[in-house]
Each structure stands twice: as structure tokens, then as C-alpha cells.
Task: inverse folding
């Protein structure tokens, strides 16, 4: 699929905007192509795959029709491959923030936090439990220091050269960055709330060896206070069992993992139930015409948070979305096995001729 981060301010016109490039959003992009709709995909994450990639990439999945077993990562790869003939543009690292109806033509204007603006006939929310965002340090003082002294990702290692850095967390990212920065920073302290780490064994062993060889420090405890002077971080108090320790620090990189947050969608004037979008099960449309919800974000009686349910929901929602994109046209259903245009698109013109010769 073509990946784009188009920073330009031009409005992008499309038939359907798919919010979320998890498994359901990816299948929806394929299905949109089958039905004859153009679409763009947007995801807050830098990678596609949603929960499958963020939460359990290497776990086996057994309940996808006709695939007896595949890992979550393989499923995402297959879905990406399935979309490829339609090459839907995807905008990763963009969080969809605002939605407004525009004009009398019943279209929608949707914007992202990084300035993309879409003009779309329909919006398909495949946003799972919401956008994945970094779990932040639960201290009021952290917000004012964010970006300068408190970080939730490492963009440029050079920013930490010669600095005293605390890396907080016990997963792969925390250990990988603590190890990577030990040769760049003045001093790295890895802070984790317990003795056991969630990271790969090899990283844990390497971090313990590095600590034993005085290449970095490992401190067990939790961040209790950020001590700043004039907006400049000076030190961090770490609460430990039976006491507290103060560590001099210029930067804290908190890598506690990601949490899902419905965020701006909750303020779009759509009927929600327990943090999810209520839909009509005949077409998975929300309380606002032209706004659909499919996959984990959709709620209705007996809803199952299963990938296969999301596929079905997307398929029905897009058929209704077609009526918004082409109000004047009547769409006739053709089974994919008899759809000449689709077969050319997917198999290519030559393969189509071969098929015809075999008949
Ligand atoms: C450990 C685990 C194991 C599982 N095993 C199975 C299984 O075996 N079989 C099965 O069927 N299901 C399984 N599931 C459930 C399955 O993963 C979910 O049902 C599925 O991921 C839902 O897909 P989705 O596309 O609706 O949402 P998600 O996968 O959650 O993707 C939603 C995407 O939308 C993005 N997004 C949200 N809000 C915004 C916004 N405002 N702007 C931009 N992007 C946004 C998010 O960043 C995310 O990438 C499992 C889940 C877990 C956690």
C-alpha cells in the first residue's frame, strides 16, 4: 500500500475515510476497492496492524475463516497483500481529531493532528479501542516538562548526548533504549518498578551485565517526583520499598507502553455506549448518517470483539457508504468469482485471459 505523510495542506477528497489501520480497517480498504469506492486509511500509529501488531504479533490466531493458523503479524501481512491491487493511500502517525459536516452536499470534513484534511462522503471508524497513545507519567508536573525533559519516545539519540538520562519501564523498548543510550549519554539509569523485566531475556541479561560493569545503573522503584527549577529538570525522586532515592537527571524517557484512548471521537456528537460507538446492525451506521463504526469500536447487542465480526461489519457498512458517495447510482451485487473488473485488477489482464481460455 502506498504510504504517505503528505504534510501539504491541500484537502484530500475521497469516497470513504477509514480511521484505523488495524485488521478491520485493512480489510475495509480491500472491500472498498471491490465495491468501487476510493478510500484513504489513517492511523495514529506509525505501523499498520492495530492490536495484532501492538499487542500480540507473534501469537497464533486460530479463528480466521480458511486460515487454520497464522500469527497476528502474518494476518496483517496477508491483509496488506489483499489490499495491494487497490493501493489505498495510508497516512500513518496521524491521529484523526475533528469531524464536521460541510455544506448541503452531506459530505464530511475530517482533520488530523498533523494538519491533514479530508473531504469524504462517508467515514468508517475502525478505531478499535481508540488511538494507541503512550502511557504518561502520572504526575501533574510532567506535562509542563514534556517534549523538553520528559519524553515518551526517542526520535533522535543525539538529543541525549552527554546528558543524564533516566529510562523508565521494564519492556523491550525501555531496555533497548537504555542499552543503546549508554554509549551516548553521560549516564543512563534504568528505572523499573520491580526486579523482573518483561523484555527479551537477551536484553535483560545484557542490561544486568552492563550494570555490573558500571556502564549504566538499574534502580528498582517508581518515579515519585520530578524536581525542576525554572522549567529545567534537575533530578527525579524514586520511591523504593522502605525509602526514596534522588537521581540527578536532565531527561526522563518513560517507556511504559501504549494505552488505547477513544479520545476526540468521543466528542463527535455520536451516540456511544460504554466508550464505544452504538450502531444499527443492518449497516453499522452510527447515530450520525454517513459515519459508520466497525470492529472493536462498534457496540450492539451481542457484539463479539472478534476479527471476523469486524470483516462482516465493514462489508455491510461500505455498501451503505456507497449510497452516500454515489447517491444517483444503484449498485448491483456481483459475486467476486464472476466480477471481470475485479479479476483483472487482482490477477492482471493476462491472468484473466488465461482464466477465460480455461473455461
Ligand atoms: C492478546 C489478544 C489476542 C487476541 N486474539 C484474537 C483471536 O485469536 N481472534 C480474534 O478474532 N480476535 C482476537 N483478538 C481481538 C482482535 O485483535 C481485535 O478484535 C481486533 O484487533 C479489532 O480490530 P480493529 O481493526 O477493530 O481495531 P484495532 O486492532 O484496535 O485497530 C484500531 C486502530 O485504530 C487506530 N485509531 C484509533 N483511533 C484513532 C484515531 N482517532 N486516529 C487515527 N487512528 C486511530 C489505532 O491506533 C489502531 O491502530 C485478540 C486481542 C488481544 C488483545
Result:
Amino acid at each position: 500500500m502506498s504510504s504517505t505523510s503528505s504534510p501539504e495542506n491541500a484537502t484530500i477528497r475521497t469516497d470513504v475515510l477509514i480511521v484505523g489501520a488495524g485488521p478491520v480497517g485493512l480489510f475495509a480498504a480491500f472491500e472498498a476497492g471491490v465495491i468501487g469506492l476510493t478510500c484513504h486509511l489513517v492511523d495514529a500509529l506509525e505501523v499498520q496492524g492495530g492490536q495484532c501488531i501492538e499487542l500480540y504479533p507473534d501469537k497464533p490466531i486460530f479463528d480466521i475463516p480458511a486460515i487454520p493458523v497464522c500469527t497476528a503479524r502474518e494476518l496483517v501481512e496477508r491483509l496488506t497483500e489483499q489490499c495491494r491491487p487497490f493501493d489505498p493511500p495510508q497516512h500513518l502517525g496521524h491521529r484523526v481529531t475533528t469531524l464536521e459536516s460541510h455544506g448541503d452536499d452531506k459530505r464530511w470534513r475530517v482533520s488530523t493532528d498533523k494538519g491533514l484534511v479530508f473531504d469524504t462522503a462517508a467515514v468508517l471508524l475502525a478505531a478499535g479501542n481508540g488511538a494507541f497513545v503512550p502511557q504518561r507519567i502520572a504526575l501533574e508536573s510532567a506535562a509542563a516538562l514534556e517534549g523538553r525533559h520528559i519524553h515518551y519516545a526517542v526520535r533522535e539519540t543525539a538529543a541525549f548526548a552527554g546528558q543524564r538520562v533516566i529510562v523508565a519501564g521494564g519492556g523491550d523498548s525501555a531496555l533497548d533504549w537504555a542499552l543503546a543510550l549508554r554509549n551516548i549519554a553521560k549516564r543512563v539509569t534504568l528505572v523499573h518498578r520491580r526486579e523482573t523485566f518483561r523484555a527479551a531475556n537477551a536484553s535483560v541479561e545484557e542490561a544486568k551485565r552492563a550494570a555490573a560493569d558500571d556502564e549504566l545503573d538499574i534502580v528498582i522503584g517508581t518515579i515519585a517526583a520530578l524536581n525542576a527549577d525554572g522549567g529545567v529538570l534537575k533530578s527525579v525522586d524514586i520511591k523504593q520499598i522502605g525509602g526514596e532515592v534522588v537521581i540527578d537527571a536532565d531527561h526522563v524517557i518513560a517507556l511504559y507502553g501504549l494505552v488505547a484512548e477513544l479520545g476526540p471521537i468521543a466528542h463527535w456528537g455520536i451516540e456511544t455506549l460504554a466508550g464505544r460507538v452504538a450502531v444499527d446492525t443492518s449497516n453499522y451506521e452510527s447515530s450520525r448518517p454517513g459515519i459508520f463504526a466497525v470492529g472493536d469500536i462498534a457496540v450492539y447487542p451481542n457484539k463479539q470483539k472478534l476479527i471476523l465480526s469486524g470483516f462482516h461489519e465493514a462489508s455491510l457498512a461500505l455498501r451503505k457508504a456507497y449510497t452516500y458517495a454515489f447517491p444517483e447510482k444503484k449498485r448491483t451485487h456481483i459475486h467476486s468469482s464472476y466480477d471481470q473488473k475485479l479479476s483483472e485488477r487482482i490477477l492482471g489482464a493476462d491472468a484473466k485471459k488465461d482464466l477465460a481460455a480455461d473455461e
About this structure: The chain has a mean pLDDT of 92. The longest strand covers residues 11-19.
